[in-house]
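Here we describe the complex-level prediction in full. Unlike the single-chain runs in Section 2.1, the two entities below were treated as one system.
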Amino acid sequence: MNKATLQKVKERIEALKKLPGIGEKDFSKLLEDNGFTRRDFLKWSAAMAVMLGLPTSFTPLIAEAAEVSDRLPVIWLNLAECTGCSESLLRSDAPTFDNLIFNYINLQYHETVMAAAGWQAEENLKEGMEKFKGRYILCVEGGVPTNMDGQFLTMGPHAETGLELLTRAANDAAAVISVGTCSSFGGIQAAAPNPTGAKGVYQVINKPVINVPGCPPSAKNIVGTILYVILFGQLPAVDNFNRPKFAYGLRIHDLCERRGHFDAGEFVEEFGDKGAEDGFCLYKVGCKGPYTFNNCSRERFNQHTSWPVQAGHGCIGCSEPDFWDSMAPYEEPLANQKYASPLADATADSYGVTILTVAGVAIAAHAALSAIKNPKE
Amino acid sequence: MKINKKIINKIEGEATLKIKGEKKIEFVEIEFWQYREMENYLKGRHYMDALVINPRICGICGHSHLYATVRTIEKVFNAKISEKAEIFREVTTLLEIVENHIKWFYITIFPTQITDKEYIFKAVKFSSKISKAIALLAGQFPHNSYMVPGGVTCDPTYMEIMRLKDLIKEIKEEYIKEIMDENLYSKDLSKFFENLPKEIGKGLNKFLVLGESNIFKSNGDYKKITEEKNSSLSKNALYDNEFYEVGPLARMIVNENEKIKKIYNHYKDSIYTRMCARIYEPLILLEYIEKKLNELDLCEPSFIKPDVKEGKAKVSIEAPRGSLIHEISIKNEKIEFYNIIVPTQFNLASSRKKPSPAQAALMGENIEYTDSIFKCFDICAVCMSH
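The structure predicted for the assembly as a whole is:
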């Protein structure tokens, strides 16, 4: 990261500052009202910089980017979903800054948190899309049903299908972010036999889409992606599934707190055994950490309180495409998949089965060897 | 006769009301137009998969779905679990109820009368603390899978329990100070009713509690539940071929809570009584959680391996919005059949022959109160049309 980049970001923020904000309240006043000091805010900014993989010299710029976050309008659509992603964002991590900032972003339309309802809400959406044409960030939560012309999801006073609404909103968006596994890859509704023909956003619109998968994704990953767009005015570097590398660059397994036990061949053989009490590796009770790219083991959930592996259940691989079928059964190691679901084979080859297989074979071999070393009592 | 179509959103999804009447609601139909066919993906899968899939029915009350799923599978296996595991499960499930009620009050229903973002922040403050408390045991919230047939996967130390107890104490104290006290005084509730009559929104005055729970007694047998299709993509749930109201108000009335009974005697099952019951319930639950955590013996096992068996089972638990029913049939370790009946199917049923609790509450009322009355049932649209 050289001086030129730093300069470019500075210019970008200056340009954003000139745009009108929503202007309800001054940012520092908002912090004060919520019992935060400037120091807390800078601490958060430093943590964000680290998470985004930026040098600490970016800390003040992150702080500035957060302060101008109300200049970029965000429209958030809820399609076929459970609202878990909004929930993750809105309640789990607050009132840390991730959340505060999200509430302070110029959110033109969000079904759950906006004050308007019914016809008024519809008006807000229309107005937001016209007023900020070509400038707004479109966040989508939920899969897109496509069977029967998308009629498994109709919404709004004009009985528009989810697919129609999405296409309309995506056309004029500056950036499209798929929040959660459903909008990224179809999610739970796309599990075999996929009765509603649910698909990910990138499969139904003709535009670059950033996927922030997870069921639900952590608030940090969602806010991180939005902040990145604000900072650089462009989409972050992504992997082959269009996931931002700063969050999905490493496997859960790589930084797992139980990794030492894996290397030492110390496994939980079944829930409730001595190994479980001692916090051994959960691979043999179905942990999909070795196949899953995400930062849960580093960033955790709910104000860094815990994450599923800490609570003794393996990772289920929720940020991988098609995990409902390819990672099941969730309490069995992938290597000895006994109960393949009806469509698992058909879908597996469309999603980089080779990566899974190579990793799978190596890991299964390691686990098998350790079983010889530590026979089950 | 003109039919007025009204869209209700901000209810974890969307509902369409077809209202007959100009000023007063003469008749109303409730429609839900999302559908995901959740039970269909479960067929043919390993029974353990239900534990991961079912919570995804809903991001708001998914933990209750997890609890119901694990209890249903255990009933098939005839599994025994330790007291400790039972306490953990109860604590996290009840915490979810508390969290849901707070969020419903400030994010769902409050804006129908008062639009001020401050209240959304207030809900977020509480719910984040509660989520943190759940995460101490369950790993994360929403969507975790720490309950498995035979117990729980976590094995917390005294350190975590100490933090948990401390958090619960803090939540309870703040709840009493900022939301509602033991005498049912609530500044925010009074503010909500400044321009809204308290006696509107009377339902069917028939209450049902089905869940097997240690706190609430039940007054029915969930084998008598049937489902019927209605005019939209959702299904109605009936008990003995009749509509009943489920949820906090039903729990308070069936359990003869004196404080709520007093209000009920005055206002009957109106919007005010229904809201009081829902806002008061967390205090009872938090007290119970504190009591249970003091009975905890950490030396007990977290998990006792059950014998895998084949068979069928049906279980009902009390979820935030009322009685939730899960039914399973397992053969060869695979799911042969799964059916889920959610509380919203009772309260928000829609029929042209006889009114459901929500239809009854809306009919005869001024059209401008529609939003408030409808939302006082705390609708979960994503669950409704799972």
